[in-house]
Amino acid sequence: MIQLLYTLLVGEGFVVLLLILKNPMRKLVTMCLDRIKRGRGPVVVKTLVGVLFVLMVASLHSIFKIHRRSDEFGSITPTDQVLVTRLMLEASLMGFCIFLTLMIDRMHHYIRELRMMRKTIEPLKMQSRSSEEWKNGGSTVSELEKEISSLKEKVNHLEAVAEAKDKDAKAAEANALAMKKQSEGFLLEYDRLLEDNQNLRSQLESFERKSSFSDAKKNS
Fold first, then answer.
1. Are 93 and 6 in contact (CB under 8 A)?
2. Helix, strand, or coil here: 21?
3. Rounded to an integer, what distance in angstroms lies between the CA atom of residue 190 and that of residue 195?
């Protein structure tokens, strides 16, 4: 019994040290305690603590009975002295184990609350930082507004230039269509003149043949 209580006491003391000191194992211990407190874990722990408390009360009651008996007889035997010492040691170990169990429970509770408070405080810190940056960045906002207005002016200028170029392109397209129609008319006129030229040449050749034929008749 005493060895078991010593083992439990050392284990609980080690857990308390891990929870108090900042170390890589602290998060793992906290996660293990979270899992223990789920489901039937709290019932089991409360049952063990209750058993230890009952045993501690029984040990104290036995010590009280031994002292009362020794008072009746006027002296205490060596066997009773050993028994009282053993019972006092067991009661002390049980009391320390119960105390460390309650201490671990409270520390775990406070660590969880601290973690939740940090999670809620972090967004508030971000909001405060953003508000401070916004206050400190008033001149930056005015500069951005000026830059936006200048960009709008440039965009309007570019839109006007684009509209003018669009009008020029439409006019050039209309001129190209007119030139195309005009060139088609010129081609038709050229074909007509070429045909007239061919007719005139054929008429001239026939006239020359007739004139040469008539001159040949006169000479004969």
1. yes
2. coil
3. 9
DSSP 34: H
For 137, which DSSP code? T
What digits encode the pLDDT tens for the residues 38-90?
777 778 778 888 888 888 888 888 888 888 877 777 677 777 778 888 888 88
> Long-range pairs for 38-46 at CB < 8 Å and ≥24 separation?
45/101
Read off the DSSP letter of residue 22. Answer: -
Kind and range of the H or E run holding 57: helix 41-73
| Residues 86/114, Cβ–Cβ less than 8 Å | no
Contact yes or no for 118/26 (Cβ under 8 A): no
Q: Which two tokens stand for residue 67?
A: 């002292």
The 3-state DSSP class for residue 77 equals coil
pLDDT tens figures, 91-133: 888 888 888 888 888 888 888 888 888 788 877 777 777 666 6
Residue type, 166: D
88 within 8 A of 63, measured Cβ to Cβ: yes
Q: Is 100 exposed, middle or buried (0-12, 13-18, 19+ CB in 10 A)?
A: middle
Nearest to 90 by CA among 205, 4, 185: 4
Which stretch of DSSP H or E encloses residue 196? helix 138-219
C-alpha to C-alpha distance for 98 and 51, rounded to whole angstroms: 10
